[in-house]
Every structure is written in structure tokens, then in C-alpha cells.
């Protein structure tokens, strides 16, 4: 069976950046299971998965626009230290949950601290990164009506 929309797919993968640094991998773990065609994985990889079958191995290079998007400079802001009321010690690399201007929850990371100025970045950590995947399709099956209705694998 070839991968099509509403297929349940199991795959092993290794994800690297353009320099070859491993970002994530299923090595030593269960394969990743997802429902094709409903946005469970990044759009560029979902496109690459179409028409593959169990046993297929391939590589795919996904540009930022088909992954987590480009870096959005508007999501990098400098705030006063007082905006982090209740947090005694702020450090670069700390992450917080905040709200976007549209009221959506987003993760922000402190990327710089200078005196009372704290710079945060609300971009996804992989925004602006070209992603290099090595993929092995383990299995493909039709999704159940319940999986299709719920939009994920059961």
C-alpha cells in the first residue's frame, strides 16, 4: 500500500540541520506514527511521504517555508525585567509560556539579558532552519473512520 491522505504511517527518521548536526531521531525508540494529510507532521515532509510504501528509504531536504517558517523578527522583543514578575533569577535559555498578540499560547525563550532589558524570542526553535531528513517507512495502513474523525492515530 502506498501512502495517501488518511493513511496511518509508521516511520523511523533522523533529522539533521544543514551542518549535519542531529536535531532529533527515532533511533532506539518506537517508530513515529502519524495520520497522513491532516497536518500531523510538517507540510514539506508530508508531501515527500506521499506515494511511498513500507520498506522505502529516502532523504528529503525541507526548506523553512515548508517546515516551521522563516524567522519572524516581530517575535523577538526586548522587555523590562519587571515583565517577569515573580521570577527571581532570569537566565539566557529559560523558556516561558506567553500569549501572542492574537491571544494564542506561544513558547518564548530568553536569548539575551543586558541590565534590566531581557530579549525574548517567540519563534519556533527550528524556524528559519533547513531540515534534512533520513526516513524509513516501516508500515502503511488505512486509517479507521475514528482516526480520520479525530485527526490522529489511535
UniProtKB/TrEMBL annotation:
GO terms for molecular function: peptidyl-prolyl cis-trans isomerase activity. It holds the Pfam family FKBP_C. One of its GO terms (cellular component) is cytoplasm. It catalyses: [protein]-peptidylproline (omega=180) = [protein]-peptidylproline (omega=0). Signal peptide: none annotated. Its EC number is 5.2.1.8. It is found in: Cytoplasm. Keywords: Chaperone, Cytoplasm, Isomerase, Rotamase. It comes from the Bacteria. GO terms for biological process: protein refolding. Residues 6-83 form the PPIase FKBP-type domain. The keyword Transcription does not apply. Also involved in hydrogenase metallocenter assembly, probably by participating in the nickel insertion step. This function in hydrogenase biosynthesis requires chaperone activity and the presence of the metal-binding domain, but not PPIase activity. Belongs to the FKBP-type PPIase family. This is Peptidyl-prolyl cis-trans isomerase. It comes from Microbulbifer yueqingensis.
Amino acid at each position: 500500500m502506498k501512502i495517501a491522505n488518511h493513511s496511518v504511517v509508521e516511520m523511523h527518521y533522523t533529522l539533521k540541520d544543514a551542518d549535519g548536526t542531529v536535531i532529533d531521531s527515532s533511533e532506539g525508540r518506537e517508530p513515529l506514527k502519524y495520520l497522513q494529510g491532516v497536518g500531523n507532521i510538517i507540510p514539506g515532509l508530508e508531501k515527500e511521504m506521499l506515494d511511498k510504501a513500507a520498506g522505502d528509504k529516502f532523504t528529503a531536504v525541507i526548506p523553512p517555508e515548508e517546515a516551521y517558517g522563516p524567522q519572524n523578527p516581530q517575535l523577538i522583543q526586548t522587555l523590562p525585567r519587571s515583565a517577569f514578575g515573580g521570577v527571581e533569577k532570569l537566565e539566557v535559555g529559560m523558556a516561558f509560556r506567553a500569549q501572542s498578540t492574537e491571544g494564542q499560547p506561544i513558547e518564548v525563550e530568553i536569548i539575551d539579558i543586558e541590565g534590566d532589558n531581557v530579549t525574548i524570542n517567540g519563534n519556533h526553535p527550528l524556524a528559519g532552519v533547513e531540515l534534512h531528513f533520513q526516513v524509513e517507512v516501516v508500515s502503511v495502513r488505512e486509517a479507521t473512520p475514528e482516526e480520520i474523525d479525530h485527526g490522529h492515530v489511535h
